[in-house]
Amino acid sequence: MPTFIDSSRPLSRRGFLNLAAAGAATAALSACSTVSGGGQFAQAPEIVPPTPTIDPVLGDYVSMYGPVSDEGYEVPGIPIKKVKPQFLRQVVADPTGERPGTLVVDTSTHFLYLVRENGEAIRYGVGLGRAGFAWSGRAVIQWKRKWPKWTPPDDMIGRDPKLEKYSVRNGGMAPGLNNPLGARALYIFQNNEDTLYRVHGSPEWWTIGKSVSSGCVRLMNQDIMDLYDRVPSKTPILVTNGLGMA
Prior knowledge:
By secondary structure, the protein is α+β, with helices and mostly antiparallel strands. The chain contains four helices and 13 strands. The radius of gyration is 20 Å and the shape is globular.
């Protein structure tokens, strides 16, 4: 059954909170200057990106990215201090101009936006496909799955024959913590045809903000689980290399 956007959970900039004290303290320490040999001169302080703010409705980052028991799987927590702050889930002013309920993936910045009411959006960091493998355009989330199987397309198997054991002919890779689609998958169709492009989870949190996969949009498992619960099937999606270029 489709899961519909929860409009009873309004998002407000007024309620933004700072990161948890531990994360803030870590950011502050990374900006400390050190004293050179003679003690007379200090190095210029390192420029540290501002820590993101989050709406109280989203909760704190320690809880947001902590370990999760889900559908019989134990999803490990994310070491949030090792993730660049801009790629953590947060509420931002909507830069897309799209109507509420739309998903927008900006491949130029490695961000995915869920457009909300009142000029706001929830922003997630994503990992993306290598150059030459990416897809772009307007489409819809035709359907979605929890703990999906992974079936690499034939062209991918052609490049790496070892993947044949996971082909459609062989039943695909079973769901699990090491499955490339992670905890959830949203399947993108255009004109009622499968683009073979997915928005999905990944156990490889360190790839967020990078272009290393074979063509799909990957989120940290905790983020794709959150997004999955916020969008129904048939949700419109725009994948674009730079906002305003659709």
